[in-house]
Amino acid sequence: MQPQGYALITGASYGIGEEFAWQLAARGWSIILVARSQDRLTQLRTDLMAEYTDIDVLCAAMDLTAPDAPAELFQKTKDANLKISLLINNAGFGAFGEFTSIDRERQRQMIDLNIAALVELTHLYLQPMMQREEGGIINVASVAGFAPLPYSAVYAATKAFVVSFSQALYEEARQHGVQVMVVNPGSTKTNFFEVAGHGAFSNSSMQTAEQVVAESIRAFDHDRRSVTTGVSNRLMVLVLGLLPVSWVTAVVGKKMRRRIAID
Questions:
Q1: Residues 62-84: tens digit of each pLDDT
Q2: How many Å is the Cα radius of gyration of the chain?
Q3: Which of 29, 92, 156, 171 is least enclosed by beta carbons within 10 angstroms?
Q4: Residue span of the structural domain in which 14 resides
């Protein structure tokens, strides 16, 4: 993965998105950071440019759940004549609880961010990449996308969409010299569970964002269409594919009920 332009990273203010920024900057990539928090982005930009003086780092503070936000972001980069050679669709969030107990607007925002914004940004930036016959897109999904997940039904469904969408797009895009890859992390030591409202789900056995991103970049270097990070997560996905869905949802549902009650 050699720098040929800018890497645009959504959800860049924390966790996996922030770590992508650090590891790509170390490789010489100039970065465009996208997230809601202007303060976090400004601080990250300052830190990155202090460490890597030969790159450019730009910030775009916006809420990608807003209907016009993806098109607005694309137009800004186009007007500035910035060549986006790598798009990392990392922005997303989850929510835990019984489906009917989770606020409808929150679930709608989850769909808007995890699916709609990802699809629109991919559509906007993939076209010029195909025209140039170079570039790449990394979509961050989750191991939750490989099986229905009771008490996080909408989140798991959004990630199942990202997995399917990305793997199909890999075949289309490679005909035009563009690489598409989906990353499927398991539980990761980020602020994800705090945002989802269940900090007690976090535990010491989780991978770090640094581990997830390093493994993802290695997979991208080897032209992989999909990578599930972490040996235990790969084994889990393999086992899930062999078991009846009815059994998986019953067992996972029982476990989730206990975890939610504890929290």
A1: 999 999 999 999 999 999 999 99
A2: 18
A3: 171
A4: 6-262
